[in-house]
Amino acid sequence: MLRGRDIISVNELSRQDFERIFDAADEILEAPGKWSSVLRGKIMATAFFEPSTRTRLSFHTAMLRLGGEVVDLGEVEKSSMAKGENLSDTIRMLDSYSDVIVMRHRLEGAAKLAAEIAEKPVINAGDGSRNHPTQAMIDLYAIRRFHGRIDGLTIGVLGDLKYGRATNSFIAALAKFRVERIYLISPPQLRVRDDTRELLSEAGIEFKEVERLEDVIGELDVLYASRIQKERFPDPSEYELVRGSYVITAETLKGARSSLTILHPLPRVDEISFEVDSTPHAKYFEQAALGVPVRMALLKLILVG
Ligand code: NCD
Prior knowledge:
By secondary structure, the chain is of the alpha/beta class.
């Protein structure tokens, strides 16, 4: 059951929760018109304290497509936070005006704090460097649509595995399924944190940490690329050491399976060159488009069951 629940981290979700959301998203894509007034009279409040394009706009679009309405805190500089109002009081207000709160924040734990304050469900649209549960829903749903299944696949996760909340949530979500193997591909400085490694071991998932994409590309069904999270490096000179570590080009893909799909939460910076966009492997824009039906499914299940 998802009705009335906060969505803070992938860890609180079961495989069944994911599948319920995926099934609802399938139904939405089959007959979008049927859903246009499911959330009539409901209001979603959004508060984005960090930049966002896809997450913010796809949440808004999802709510509007369900017949609901949206109030947005807007730029922090134009809200009362600029006068010194704290996060707790701001959340309390959003809670009293709306039926569900969607929040993104720089600090890990901010969404949990908001959920403790608010009576209405809080959806974490990304906080800090660990949790971005709705992105993981989209990513796994994209795999299910493009490959027909998640179980049994070999998946490479490439880039910033240390600071990326999208990569971390993706890996945590994969651990709920029976994937064949996960390759964690990163420079040594950006390897996954110990808790992620433990999570995979506990789930009994076979995984291997490697540095070179070329060594594993031929084995992959899915390559999940990610941006190096410049803004999360405590020391800018450390970022300089790893920037541009990976650039996927048409050349890189020569040894790939014809059925390989490349996913990316976006935005990309320089890790996928533009020439890859026109190959049949490139699925990241279609993946981003799935953000709307997945978030529609989630909002519907949380608000009306
Ligand atoms: C991601 C994020 O904000 O964590 N973006 C997204 O929501 N699609 C990934 C990123 O910023 O690199």
